[in-house]
Amino acid sequence: MAGHGGKREGAGRPKGRPNKITIERQEQLILEKREPLDRILQAMQIFESLAEHYQPGTTEQPNPNHDEAKYVGYVKLMADTAAKAAPYVHHRRASIVHTGPNDGAIQIEAIDNALAKMSDMELNQLERLLTPLVSSARVTPGIADSSRAGNRWKKH
């Protein structure tokens, strides 16, 4: 009875290939759309419908099912699931800081050239106009040339 039982070359499932049960499970997951985002969105919709069921009505049409504690609880759950779904739907915005050389001010030649051509009186007027704007925007203008350290607009 040669060829029965024992280890044989080429017999059985190839290494690394999933078995029938694993393949069936993967196909079922694809059919049921059980990916994280889909499950989170489905949960959010369930919480939304429950919140609607328990929400307060109007004075003309009061909701007989109104329950403030349940309504608030389901709204919070809905907001929590929405926050969990956000990374799958929206990209996170990066925090960007623009700086010039050596983390200093960004050099803008056109502005520097215009400031260099202004008279002391014009620079003082410009400073009076810009100072309230700068302080309200909480921006500290960088001083490109350290020789202007006393008055940032005044020529030396």
List keywords for this structure.
156 residues, mainly alpha, 5 helices
Main sheet, how many strands, which sense, barrel?
none
Residues in helices, as a percent range: 40-55%
Which ranges are low-confidence, i.e. pLDDT below 50, for 5 or more consecutive residues?
A: 141-150
Number of helices: 5
SSE string, helices as H and strands as E: HHHHH
Arithmetic mean pLDDT: 79
Based on secondary structure, the structural category is mainly alpha
Number of strands: 0
User: What proportion of the residues form beta strands (DSSP E)?
Assistant: under 5%
Question: Which descriptor suits the 3D outline?
Answer: flat
Termini gap: 107 Å
* Rg from alpha-carbon coordinates: 34 Å
Descriptive account of the structure:
The structure is a single chain. The protein has 5 helices and no strands. With 156 residues, it is mainly α. Among the domains are: 33-88; 108-148, no CATH class. Mean pLDDT is 79; it is low at 141-150.
Précis, in short:
The chain is an all-alpha fold and 156 residues long. It is built from five helices and no strands.
Question: How is this fold's topology laid out?
Answer:
Elements: H1 20-32, H2 36-54, H3 68-89, H4 109-117, H5 120-137
